[in-house]
Amino acid sequence: MVLVFAEATNGKFKKPAQEVVTYGAKTAAALGTDCVVLTLGDVQDAGDLGRFGASKVYNVSAPALAGFDSGVFTAAIAGAAQQLGAKVIVLSHNSTGKNLTGRLAARLDAGSAPGVRAVPVIDGGKFTVRKSVFSGKAFADVEILTDMKVISVVGNSIPVEANGNAVGVDSLSVELPTPKIKVLSTKRAEGITPLPEAELVVSGGRGLKGPENWAVITDLANVLGATTACSRPVSDSDWRPHHEHVGQTGVAIHPNLYIAAGISGAIQHLAGVNSSKTIVVVNKDPEAPFFKSADYGVVGDLFEVLPLLTEAVKKFKGA
Amino acid sequence: MKMLVCVSKTPETTTKIQLTADKSDLDKSGIQYIMNPYDEWYALVRALELKEAGGGSVTILNVGPADNDSVIRKGLAIGADDAIRVNSEDGGSLYIAKQIAAQAAGYDIVFFGKETIDYNGSEVGAMVAELLDVAYVGEASHLEMNGNTATITRDIEGGVEVVEVNTPLAVSAAKGMAEQRIPNMRGIMMAKRKPLSVVEPIDAPATTVIASYELPPEKSAVKLVDPENMDELVRLLHEEAKVI
Question: B52 exposed, middle or buried (CB, 10 Å; 0-12, 13-18, 19+)?
Answer without folding.
Answer: exposed
